Amino acid sequence: MLQLRPGCECCDKDLPPDSADARICSFECTFCVDCATNKLAGRCPNCGGELVARPRRPAEKLARSPASTERVFKPAGCGG
Fold first, then answer.
1. Is this structure's pTM higher than 0.85?
2. Which Pfam families did the record assign (predicted)?
């Protein structure tokens, strides 16, 4: 099950579980659409994988399967 991490690894922008602005790689590294597009050119800085839109979990499923609260913030790895 996807973790649905709560923030962008580059800029620390909040990305709630229902956000259409979240992008992830196959390892679930998480970025906002702005960083994914403008800073990272659609590639994960951690693994080199493609960044794609993160699926949104239906609200009624979040109670039983909540989103992660683990924030990962690595601005140094996000280029300029």
1. yes
2. DUF1272
Boundaries of every domain in the chain: 1-63
Eight-class DSSP state of 76: G
The rounded distance, in Å, linking the Cα atoms of 20 and 38 is 17
Assigned token pair, 16: 């709630």
Do 78 and 45 touch, CB atoms closer than 8 A?
A: yes
Q: Which fold has domain 1-63?
A: Herpes Virus-1 (3.30.40)
Which token pair is 49?
Answer: 């994988």
**Which pLDDT tens digits describe the chain residue by residue (80 residues)?**
899 999 999 999 999 999 999 999 999 999 999 999 999 999 999 999 999 999 999 999 999 999 999 999 998 988 75
